[in-house]
Structure formats: C-alpha cells, structure tokens
C-alpha cells in the first residue's frame, strides 16, 4: 500500500474528534431529560433503554450500507452525508417537547450516524502494516479526547438548561461537516473500489464477513463482548450515580470526562510501548483481565468519590478494542476494509441494541419496589461476566490459530 501523507490521518482524526465531542455533550444530559419528562427514575431507565436501543437498531441496519457505499463511491461523500443527518438529529433533540420527538430524533441519528465505520476504513486505507495498530490506537485516543471534553462541556452547559448542550452539539457537527467538505481528501483508490450491492449491505450478511475465518470470528467475538460490557456501563452510569450518590449533570459529566481522559492516556500513551514489548495478544489478554477486575470494583464503593478512583484503576480496559480491531483489519484485503469496518460497526450497534435494553431493564427492576432485594450494581456484575467470556474467547483464539494477513488485495 502506498504511503499517505501524515496530514490525511490528521484530517480524519480531527473529524472524528469533533463528531464524538458532539455526542459526548449529550451523554450526561439525555437520561436526565427523560427523567424530567416522565418524573420517575425507574421509569426513565426503561425509556432511556428503549430510546438507546432504537438508535442502535438504526445504526445496526445502516452501518454496513454506509461501509459498502464508501467502498464504491469513496469515504468522503458518505462521511459528509452522515454528519448532515447527525446535525439535524441534534436540532431535533434541542426542540423535542415529548418522548415521541426524542425517539424520532434518535431514529434519524442512527439512520445516518455510521460515520465511525467510514472513518475507520479511511484510516485503514492510509495505514501500512507497521503502523496500523498505532493508527487505530490514535482513533481510540481521538475518541477518548472527545469524551473528555464533550461530557465535561455538556455538564457545564447544562447550567443554562438541559437542552442547551444539544444545540451546541448541532453547531459543532455542522462545523465538522463544513470542515470535511473543504479540507478532508479522498483516501479510497479507484482500483480498490467495488460495486455496491444491497446483498452485501444487508446487516445480517455483513456480519457474515466476520465468520470468514476462525481468527476473524474470534477477534470479532472479543470485540462484541467488550462492546456489550461497555454498553452496560454507559447506559446505566448516569442513572446509577443519580440513584446511589444523588449526582447531578455536572458530576455525571465530570466522571465521564475522567473516563475519556483515562482512555486517551491508555490508547495514546500506553498502547504503543506495551504492544512493542509484550505483543498484541498478551496486551489484549491483560486488558481483558483488568476489565474484569475493574467492573467488579465498581460494585464496591459506598461514596461517590470512590467511583473516580475505580475509573482511574480501570484505565487499561480501553486498550482491548483498538488492538483487536487492528489485528482484525490486518486479516482482510484493501477491497474489504469498508465492508469489514461496516460489519464491525453493525456488530457494535448490535451490542448497543442488546446492552442498554438488558442493563437498563435490569437496573430499573432491581431498584423498583417489586424487586426481591435492591441491587443497583447489577449492570457492573453483568459487565464483569461478559469480560470473563471475552477473556476465554481471546485465550482460545490465540492458542489455536495464527493470525496471518491476506496474500492479495
């Protein structure tokens, strides 16, 4: 693969940063807005799970469509269309007077919000074998920085009202769109393009790409379990800390910002030297082990400040996905990068469908009067079990199969 200019990587990383910062702005706000509308935190948990699942269902269906379209028409036009729809969805959330409006805005967001798959394919286009893991780690770092600034800014902006951060997210997303239109170059070579096919863009068929070999399937399964556990965490974090520690939007945003900071530190400053010394496989196994321990520790704090300490201790968790994604990307040809990244995005969306629906319903039930006993920590227990399964899958995959790159483009 021909070497690309470093500025091309910078362009797409800035695009990703602005995009995820807009998402981060709304993350500590939406559960509280739903709670404000329905007036009960247990009921709000059910509705938040349903809205999150609706968004993820749209993302699941349309992620492979965007990935396949980018394989034929290029990454840039598909990315711009995605950003336009995301900006409109944030405007919808800004003016939403009731739950049906919230559902409609999130449907639009999911329908056009698969830009991460296209951006990952862009990075795969401009990467070589020797820097692929580093570049995918930079994606994680960029997303993490967006999570640092976005939630903190969202919590701060909520001082002017719960809807105000959505307006800022819309403005940031449209600025991102203009930036992409004027600055970001195309990365997908004409000789590597392939004709769009609805059959290939079908999300079920797309997931079939992840079964083309045992190593690819094993790595995809590890990523799925990690994504599912993360969704159990993210979908209930604001609800859990509100219920147990009476945190407001500012505290929730600050904690999510710390989460993003730890992700940035690990993925930006630790992944490269650790992988260089211990290798990708050992690093994945170690990351999964830390994740399992960290989620168990989340069940123990009795005061809110203790949660910040667990977030810091659990930081190595965030090395797992970018390294696994890098290994998997190296197992497919240049012609398949858009499709395989779309398949991974569909798989992540599937985790976003199942995880929040399961975790928020379990949380809502175990804090309700009908529960046999109160167990608000149930989402973290479920996440720990998922990381235990991921650890077994990783060890099994690495012990039985060698991971060899494709011989042809």
UniProtKB/TrEMBL annotation:
Gene3D superfamilies: MFS general substrate transporter like domains. Keywords: Membrane, Transmembrane, Transmembrane helix, Transport. It is a multi-pass membrane protein. Residues 8-402 form the Major facilitator superfamily (MFS) profile domain. The keyword Cell membrane does not apply. It is found in: Cell membrane. Its main location: membrane. The keyword Transport applies. Pfam families: MFS_1. One of its GO terms (molecular function) is transmembrane transporter activity. GO terms for cellular component: plasma membrane. The chain crosses the membrane at residues 46-65, 77-95, 101-124, 136-160, 166-184, 216-240, 252-271, 283-300, 349-368, 380-398. SUPFAM superfamilies: MFS general substrate transporter (SSF103473). This is Uncharacterized MFS-type transporter. It comes from uncultured Synechococcales cyanobacterium.
């Amino acid at each position: 693969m021909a070497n690309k200019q470093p500025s091309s990587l910078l362009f797409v990383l800035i695009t990703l940063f602005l995009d995820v910062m807009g998402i981060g702005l709304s993350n500590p706000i939406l559960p509280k807005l739903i709670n404000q509308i329905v007036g009960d935190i247990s009921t709000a948990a059910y509705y938040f799970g349903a809205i999150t699942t609706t968004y993820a269902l749209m993302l699941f269906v349309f992620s492979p469509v965007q990935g396949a379209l980018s394989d034929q028409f290029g990454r840039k036009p598909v990315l711009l269309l995605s950003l336009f729809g995301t900006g409109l969805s944030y405007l919808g959330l800004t003016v939403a007077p009731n739950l049906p409006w919230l559902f409609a805005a999130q449907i639009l967001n999911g329908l056009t919000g698969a830009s991460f798959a296209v951006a990952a394919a862009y990075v795969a286009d401009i990467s070589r074998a020797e820097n692929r893991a580093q570049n995918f780690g930079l994606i994680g770092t960029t997303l993490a920085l967006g999570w640092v600034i976005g939630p903190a800014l969202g919590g701060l902006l909520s001082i002017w009202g719960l809807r105000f951060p959505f307006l800022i997210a819309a403005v940031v997303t449209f600025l991102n769109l203009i930036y992409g239109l004027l600055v970001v170059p195309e990365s997908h070579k004409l000789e590597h393009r392939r004709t769009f096919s609805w059959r290939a863009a079908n999300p079920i068929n797309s997931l079939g790409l992840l079964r083309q070999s045992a190593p690819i399937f094993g790595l995809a399964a590890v990523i799925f379990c990690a994504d599912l556990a993360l969704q159990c965490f993210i979908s209930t974090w604001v609800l859990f800390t509100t219920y147990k520690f009476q945190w407001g939007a500012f505290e929730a945003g600050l904690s999510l910002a710390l989460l993003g900071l730890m992700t940035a530190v690990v993925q930006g400053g630790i992944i490269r030297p650790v992988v260089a010394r211990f290798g990708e496989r050992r690093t994945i196994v170690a990351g999964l082990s830390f994740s399992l321990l960290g989620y168990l520790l989340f069940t123990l704090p009795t005061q809110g400040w203790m949660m910040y300490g667990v977030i810091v201790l659990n930081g190595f968790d965030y090395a797992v996905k970018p390294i696994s994604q890098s290994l998997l990307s190296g197992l497919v040809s240049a012609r398949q990068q858009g499709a395989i990244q779309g398949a991974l995005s569909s798989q992540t969306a599937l985790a976003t469908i199942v995880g929040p629906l399961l975790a928020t319903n379990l949380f809502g039930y175990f804090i309700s009067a009908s529960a046999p006993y109160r167990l608000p920590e149930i989402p973290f227990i479920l996440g720990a079990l998922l990381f235990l399964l991921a650890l077994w899958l990783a060890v099994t995959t690495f012990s039985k199969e060698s991971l060899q790159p494709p011989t042809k483009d």
